[in-house]
Every structure is written in C-alpha cells, then in structure tokens.
Amino acid sequence: MTKWIEGKIKDQSAKKLSEEPVFSGKDVEQRFKPIQKLYKKTLGKKAPKVEPKDEEKKEEKKEDKKDEDKKTDDKKKDDTKDQKKDL
User: Fold this and answer.
1) Which is deepest, 3, 32, 53, 86, by most CB within 10 Å?
2) Which helix H or strand E contains 71, and what residues bound it?
C-alpha cells in the first residue's frame, strides 16, 4: 500500500499543476476497502482467553495462601489485643 501511494505521489510531482491528476480520492478509497473490511472483521472478534501456565497457577496459589495467612495473623493479633483490654 505504501509503495503504491509513494509511487503515485512521485508521478504526481512530475506532472504540471494544470494536467490531470495521477490518482484521485476514489483510487485511494478502492485501495483501502480490503483493509477496512479486515479491520471491521478483526474488531468484532473477542480476544481469546489465555490460561496461565502451571507455574503461574502455582505462584498465584502461593500468593493467595500468603494473603490468607497474613489476614489470619492480623486477626489473631487483634483478638490478643482485645483480650488484654478486657483484663
């Protein structure tokens, strides 16, 4: 596409302003129709879901477990503080 338009621009620059143009807007539109069609087709598709690899799943499970352990520890600390206040 770029080669075509660059060639047309080069040809146009060689012509005088009073001569017929080398290409028109309709020519450009005709060249872009297949690209527009492909764009619309691609735009309408949803991206496929990518499942994480086994290693990534293991890492996520480890992180989830760490988060749960941290929450449990924080809760235990809060309970201990509450018990000390009661005494």
Assistant:
1) 32
2) helix 54-86
